[in-house]
Predict the structure.
Amino acid sequence: MPVVRLVAFARLRELLGDRRDIVLADGASVGDLWEALVREEPRLTEFARGTRFARNNRLCSAEALVCEGDEIALLPPFGGG
Amino acid sequence: MTLAGSRDLRRYSRHLLIPEIGLAGQERLASSRALVIGAGGLGAPVLAYLAAAGVGRIGVIDDDVVDESNLQRQILFENADIGRPKAEVSAERLHALNPQIAVDALQLRFDARNARELVRLYDVVIDCSDRFTTRYCASDACSLEGKIEIFAAIFRFDGQVTRFDPTGPCYRCLFPHAPEPGSVPTCAEGGVLGVLPGIVGAWQASEALKALLQIGDPLRGRLLLVDALAARTREVRFERDPECVRCGDRPTLFEPVDAPDEDSTASIPDVAEIAPEELDAILREAVLLDVREPHEAALGLIPGAVHLPASELEARMHELDTAKRYVVACRVGVRSRWAVARLRDAGFKRLAHLQGGLLRYAALDAGFEFF
């Protein structure tokens, strides 16, 4: 049961509040982490389309598997300029 | 332009003292051309620093006018500029700051029609826009024309900065799908700390100057994240995406596109578009088909609406009556666009689509609660 550290930006950070260490099932992917977060905070749904993930500061796909101690960042695109 | 022997060289003495720049570098800047897309929060510091640094020709493209609410952060403008075109005011200020440079004031919208032609005239492009459509279009045009682009975007206390190269990665490698319209606010919608675009725009100016001077380690394949509230920065590495429609191994996109995805804003053949203001009147003889997911619908349905989540549409389409007139709606109008096209393909004839989704309808204060 890997424990991963969550980092989020902009509106996602606001919605996720102080969630930090997340326990996942063995063999879980970054996408599974996102699904788990959406179940807890349904308002994340509208960000699903644009948001990218990074595993240990490297952009990754939703299929990437997570390991104990990984840091997973949720990166929404920002709108302002 | 040659600067050697010029009495104006004194202006750049602090550059001339740096081994990485020197006279050769300064002359290089003087013969360089930079295009700044958007003269807003990011554009102000970028324009000012590039002009001060002696970039020989600067294009500034913006179709907007100065608003009082811009003055909290867009430090190129003054109170007396309210209502004046940003491109024109910017050109005035840059000329006053550095009379040695040329400024092209382009008072128009950067879009798919003019993108390639404009980008071709400059050596580096700095995207300071506040629209996703512009961002995709700028990145496409730079990739197609072989230009370096310096990108940034901001939200409240947060900034993202990176550089896109003609060989990739491009903006589409980083964000292949634009967010749902309305889900990611601009500064006008979400607010921004006034100084934040100053910090982030200064990073962009630095990367643009490095690109023109060909010095240092470029911010290529690295997304710099600035969090002013925590006073922290972080870097996320990314690569050219082999699947990218523009710079991937099998590209399919050969002209700039200012719609982020093919399904985003184009009108749907045979489907009537309904403005939120018209919805109440139309629902007297039509049924609202709400295609949001169950957890969203649980927060409030319009009375009389039929709820059928987009994810179950194909399996449960038989529950609908082809003789009825349906107005299809979701939260912001993206999933409903997909759903209405499926229904049309399945033989439904009397379809309409709610523009901007229930979010825009709720904004009319029609007595419908929406979070």
User: Anything to note?
Assistant: The first helix of chain B runs from residue 13 to 16. Chain B touches chain A through 50 residues (CB under 8 Å).
